[in-house]
Amino acid sequence: MKRTEIKTLLESTDYGKTVNVKGWVRTKRESKNVAFIALNDGSTIKSVQIVVDKNPEIEKILDNIHTGAALSVNGTIIESPGKGQKVEIQAKEIEVLGPADPEEYPLQPKKHTLEFLREIAHLRFRTNTFGAITRVRHAMIFAIHKYFTENGFYNIHTPIITASDAEGAGEMFQVTTLDLNNIPKTDDGEVDFRKDFFGKPANLTVSGQLEAELAALALSKVYTFGPTFRAENSNTSRHLAEFWMIEPEVAFYDINDDMDLAEDMVKYLIRYALENCMDDLGFLSKRQQDEEKSKKADERSMELIEKLRFVIDQEFERITYTEAIDILRNSKPNKKKKFQYLIEGWGADLQSEHERYLVEKHFKKPVIITDYPKDIKAFYMKQNDDGRTVRAMDVLFPQIGEIIGGSQREDDYDKLYNRIKEMGIPEESMWWYLETRKFGSVIHSGFGLGFERMMLFVTGMGNIRDVIPFPRTPLNCEF
Ligand code: 4AD
Ligand code: MG
User: Fold this and answer.
1) 96 and 143 in one domain?
2) 143 in the same domain as 81
3) Interatomic CA distance for residues 421 and 164, integer angstroms
4) How many Å separate Cα 251 from the centre of its chain?
5) Domain that holds residue 263
6) pTM
7) Which atom of ligand 1 is nearest to the CA of 232?
8) How many domains does the chain have?
9) Could you read off the pLDDT of 226-270 as tens digits, one per residue?
């Protein structure tokens, strides 16, 4: 018999029909004459209840059924007397496809901490929480491609291995085939990269932006959505060494168009989640509220779905960096020395505590900050006439801080060239990028949305390690 997915089954009311379901046992409860098995196949957060009338033969099978085992069940759809779902399955035949030893299976039907689940990432997909996150993650990936397709963008695959540092921050993982125990050296005693695979140093990309710009200066509207890698040693709940980034790049867009695009896109994604993922979001909302029960009322987060609706309804606040510094300098936590990094004056880089203060305490809605000091931003950003700021824009979200970083790009050849020189970026790694400013250079802009940060926001999870299937962080490369 063809397998019916549990999602489809739970939506049907074909009482009396015989079906086959397959999945993994979440729980088994037994009384004298009957057993109840909750079976889940991941197609939905909901499990289907399998009702088993006991007889000596079936009891032998039941003895082998424990949490985690994989089953195939043939049975009839019956009306559920319980609340919450319409149907159950009255089992006729049960086959144990894969047993799970209850002494050894680590995922017993009780609450496990997220930290523990990270240690068993090979099994954590089988929890309600990670099932929900995985389905929402899929929906968001789909919505991203849908949004750009509907808006005339073309997706391009930018390289994962590159020989440039797109952000100029030096946080790259090197890629080499050299024998690290026997490194070839030049006469000067330096590593001889001519002997390496590409004949020069190469690294994993930190961003697909530079290549996306090349495509935008021909196709007008493009985006990349790929993995990016950063060897920054930040062990925080918002940083990964391997994360996914969505980077649109648009010719003829200035920074204001760029901000409009960013705001419209994230609102679209949130709306898509609300329209398509309510079962999972409902579960994640309850999970978050349970988790925060022990917190004081004023420390609890806004209820997840209310928070998502709230953000869609708000017009994001747009302020300059200079205005942000004024607000922060005069803020209570700065005056009372509550910030870990005190804001002394103009030029300071904003830390996530500052970003969150602006968003959560001051404006109480998402904030876009523009026109940052050029010294704390990347080389490619459009320089303002004041000589000290660049046309950058960061979108800041509650609980997360920076979710998007973008800018209008420097389109003037000389200014870009001088900035590259000034910042000590190897010119020979940038010649192709510079050339686009020689031939048909136009105003253009783009941004990068950190996909896992977006996932943190949409799911209400607190740690970025829990919204990607296999997190990569310092000293952590298991699974
Ligand atoms: O601000 P960033 O570094 O910008 C860029 O890479 C630009 N090239 C983007 C562009 O204009 N095309 O990174 C963009 C976003 C951040 O706002 C953040 O959401 C996310 O990427 N991000 C990280 N997410 C997880 N772990 C990390 N280590 C991250 N670093 C940045
Ligand atoms: Mg940034």
Assistant:
1) no
2) no
3) 15
4) 26
5) 126-171+206-316+365-466
6) 0.96
7) 28
8) 2
9) 999 999 888 899 999 999 999 999 999 999 999 999 999 999 999
